[in-house]
Design the sequence.
């Protein structure tokens, strides 16, 4: 029974309107046919008695008149029966045609009535956290539909203000916190650098505090990048080669790769995958992906990198080996402060913002991030971006 219910069509407003208008049209057509039949039957009864007086006047013999009348009455009864049958068949055909026409007209009228609502729904679906500045701006008279569209526009305006205030707060707080962090780091350096001998416990505590301060500094930097990425406009847009960008990220981390004994497989880092965007943000995106691949990898592991064109997208894929991961947990890594556990935290920043920054940068450029747990173990990070054609002489 449950499967049968799931197979039924959804009871949409248009379907209900179509049924309502169809029934109204069908009832109107049926009423018109009934009235037509009543009028036709009435006129037939009148025509039955009309010839009688004329026939009696034209025949000189009463017997001949009766015979003539009986003959005409039989012919008239047959004609009336034939007419009634034809009228019944015609009415049935007309009713069937009217039922079909009623459904078609009901659907058309329901579609015209609901067209403004469909326009509002489609426009609302296009608006997300990245384009809250857009408005429905539905034209037309001041009716219920216009009031609904104006109400949604007012809601979007309040949401835009709220999101902007949140992003400004994150950016301003991150900037303001950098000053006390720098002061604390300088105070530690001054305390450790005094001429008199410093107790080993103090040196160890200072090193631990520096590590924590660096961690907080990286966390604030991540907040700043997220706030800038989600704010919207990208000022330094240019043609970027994904292959060159990820190659630069690998070269910058060559020492870390060697220290961990990792093997890098570069399937395809040619100039085929180009996109348009912010050089700074796309470089940060590649850095975060490579950092994640190095940090959350085991000693002597491997990294596979590819930058290609995949249909309508420029594709950057970074894969790593390791233990088998849970796909549900992997899917949450694109959200801030999500991790897979202490065994994958490693010695990196461990802030839980790395892949969320990657997702935000990809989204700001019109792309997306796909995280998949490899069946044989490890993680596959795939970034899709809108492609552009590479031009000769354009630097990466």
Sequence:
């Amino acid at each position: 029974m449950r499967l049968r219910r799931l197979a039924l069509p959804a009871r949409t407003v248009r379907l209900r309107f179509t049924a309502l208008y169809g029934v109204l049209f069908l009832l109107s057509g049926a009423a018109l046919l009934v009235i037509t039949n009543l009028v036709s039957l009435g006129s037939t009864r009148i025509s039955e008695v009309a010839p009688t007086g004329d026939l009696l006047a034209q025949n000189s013999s009463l017997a001949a008149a009766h015979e003539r009348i009986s003959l005409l009455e039989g012919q008239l009864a047959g004609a009336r029966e034939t007419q009634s049958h034809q009228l019944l068949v015609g009415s049935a055909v007309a009713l069937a045609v009217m039922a079909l026409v009623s459904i078609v007209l009901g659907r058309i009228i329901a579609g015209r009535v609901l067209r403004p609502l469909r326009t509002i729904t489609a426009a609302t679906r296009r608006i997300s956290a990245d384009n809250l500045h857009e408005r429905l701006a539905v034209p037309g008279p001041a009716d219920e539909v216009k009031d609904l569209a104006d109400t949604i526009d007012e809601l979007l305006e309040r949401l835009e203000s709220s999101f902007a205030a949140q992003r400004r707060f994150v950016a301003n707080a991150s900037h303001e916190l950098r000053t006390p962090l720098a002061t604390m780091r300088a105070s530690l350096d001054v305390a450790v650098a005094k001429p008199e001998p410093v107790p080993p416990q103090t040196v160890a505590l200072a090193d631990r505090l520096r590590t924590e301060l660096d961690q907080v500094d990286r966390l604030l930097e991540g907040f700043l990048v997220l706030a800038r990425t989600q704010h919207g406009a990208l000022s330094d847009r240019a043609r970027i080669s994904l292959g060159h960008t990820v190659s630069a990220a690998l070269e910058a981390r060559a020492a870390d790769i060697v220290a961990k004994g990792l093997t890098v497989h570069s399937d395809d880092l040619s100039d085929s995958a180009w996109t348009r965007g912010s050089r700074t943000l796309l470089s940060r995106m590649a850095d975060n992906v490579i950092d994640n691949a190095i940090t959350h990898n085991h000693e002597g592991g491997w990294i596979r990198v590819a930058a290609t064109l995949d249909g309508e997208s420029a594709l950057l894929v970074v894969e790593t080996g390791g233990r088998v991961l849970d796909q549900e947990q992997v899917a949450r890594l694109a959200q801030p402060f999500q991790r897979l556990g202490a065994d994958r935290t490693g010695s990196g920043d461990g802030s839980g913002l790395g892949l969320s920054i990657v997702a935000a940068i990809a989204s700001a450029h019109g792309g997306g991030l796909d995280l998949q747990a490899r069946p044989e173990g490890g993680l596959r990070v795939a970034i899709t971006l809108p492609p552009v054609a590479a031009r000769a002489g354009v630097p990466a």
